[in-house]
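Usage example:
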Amino acid sequence: MENTLLDIKNLKVWYRTYKGYAKVVDGINLFVNKGEKVGLVGESGCGKTTTMKTVLRVLDSKVATVPEGEILFKNRDILKMKYNELQQVRKQSISMISQEPTAALNPVFTVGSQIMDIIRYSEQYKDYSKSEMLSLAVKTIKDVLIPDPERILNSYPHQLSGGMKQRICIAMALVTPRELLIADEPGTALDVTVQDQIHKLLKALVEEKKMSLIMITHSLGVARELSDRIYVMYAGNIVEVAQTKELFKNPLHPYTLGLMECVPRLYGGGISEGIYGYIPDYINPPAGCRFYPRCPSAMEICEKEKPPTVSVSEDHKVACFKYH
Amino acid sequence: MNTEILKVKNLKTYFAINKSSGKKQYVRAVDGVSFSIKEGEIMGLVGESGSGKSTIAYTIMGMYRPTEGEIIFNFNGKSIVTKSNKRSLEFKKNVQIVFQDPGSSLNPYHDVRQILSLPLRVHKIVPKDKIEEKIAEILEMVELPASFMYKTPTSIGGGEKQLVSIARALCSNPKFIILDEPTSSLDVSIQAKIINMLLKIHREQKLTYLFITHDLSLMRNISTKVAIMYLGKICEIAPTEIFYKSPLHPYTQMLLSSIPVISEEEEALKPKKVVSTGEIPSPVNVPKGCSFHTRCIQCMDICRTEDPVIHQVSEDHFVRCHLYKS
Ligand SMILES: Nc1ncnc2c1ncn2[C@@H]1O[C@H](COP(=O)(O)OP(=O)(O)OP(=O)(O)O)[C@@H](O)[C@H]1O
Ligand SMILES: Nc1ncnc2c1ncn2[C@@H]1O[C@H](COP(=O)(O)OP(=O)(O)OP(=O)(O)O)[C@@H](O)[C@H]1O
Ligand code: SF4
Ligand SMILES: [Mg+2]
Ligand SMILES: [Mg+2]
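Running the assembly step on the lines above writes:
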């Protein structure tokens, strides 16, 4: 489609382990339109980060392989790109905010020198003078609501709080805005007021610059506030996708229903039990529906066959035999 | 059941920074915090990012030396007062912490078995030949399969790392655990399981938790008491029920009004949206007067000049704000 920026088709990603292949990402389809904000929600370990790292091709090729699938970015398959073209995409088109700020920041350099490096080596700002670069760095830090930009620029990562490190990672992804921003759990370490403002910042940036956003989150509340459309992922499969309003009004997949039940409510009532059971072993995943062993509405067929994805309405798709 | 297990008195932790101008300045990360936790309680410590929550936790653990103040633990009638950063082995056995960032607190070169066997050996929890058995048992407590023993932190997901950190904290049979955002990187289903597991262990082993989090909806459901921090100070503290029924401090109201929720019913429960405006001040140059006045929508003249003192509004409800002077 003309309007599609990223189109992931039937993507599979496996990890080599000593016991055999862990078949983590299991044939997912996901697209992002220009200017669209897409949420990717799912349980810990379901493969969200793996999928997005594959998009940027930053997974260690010694342990990860992609046996099948295409990742079309403006109709070019990222998986087939040569190094130069790939670098171009990474430098100019897609950026990712990492889930683990501590790991993403280099502990031996100050935050300032890390941000300055990004500015210095970018297309947009490489001709700036030193002082222009510095004031851009200061502005970036202010943008993510950290007071005291000067202290922060001179600090090493360990001298910052968890939420500050996370915001520095956000700042680094935002200095040089790209067409697609992948934000991997960007708000987890932030308090709600700062989170709220960071989300507003992301939203404004995306809307103003007509960027696209993939918001990876495990929080349904955050997804609800920040995305136009939501993909629900379970154990390497997209099990449901719908416009945000529709998904909360009319959740269909038993896993989505389970997730909604787990959210602690502001009106109290205690903590739910969590969805029965665990995410499957990826080395020997269930043959049929991967949710089958945990599903309260499982039928006979679910054990044997993989449920194909069906459309229940125009934009609402679900992969579950209940709706066949 | 009502003995105080931890009492923190006027705790201050400052960090020196060297400005290029040569003048010594301080980050006043924790700036005169007092609270106490009774045995069996779950106290939620909530607050702005950078407000000093982790610093309180690290200072309690002895990782930072307090600039001022006292930390008093009381185990079975025996009190341990600390003013420095030295901690006895006995203290380390009784008090454990789960760190905020699961990725970086686990040694990537060790497998889970090595990570968990260290505290078991240091605190002599089981004889050498029983170590693997015990590890399997602890992994089961946090609901991970025993086969996890042979995995290394690099090959497991974010959520799983957090479970391993919790398992590590449980190894020494502690009495008091500080949980620094133990579930903020986890999805709601695993969060529910970990919380249930933490609550179960809390009951069975008569533990006390200091629970640091941003999630006020979560605290509503599990804590017995909530303290709100802003810029190194506690601005409101109250038993959970009272706290959610009548939040008083303007910052608390702002926090509650910003919570992302998933239903209209909950939207209705939130205080009217208080849009956060104004510069977020820094702990190096703490604003004069009430440190929240730069963002407060109810700011009065007195707030710009005079720092409010903590004021008792009802039996266990304290608030630091000029609006509530008797
Ligand atoms: N290098 C690796 N080798 C083997 N298995 C791996 C490796 N990296 C990840 N995995 C496994 O792949 C699965 C998916 O991991 P991934 O990090 O993509 O999940 P996620 O959805 O991002 O989870 P979270 O919400 O916890 O971040 C997990 O079960 C994890 O254990
Ligand atoms: N080792 C250190 N050296 C200098 N400053 C520090 C150090 N550790 C923390 N700080 C500063 O102290 C302040 C409080 O940090 P702390 O980590 O306690 O915040 P927090 O409340 O835990 O925040 P978050 O919710 O983001 O984790 C921050 O301004 C931080 O930069
Ligand atoms: S003391 Fe004044 S500025 Fe501070 S919170 Fe209360 S009303 Fe707002
Ligand atoms: Mg992830
Ligand atoms: Mg912290």
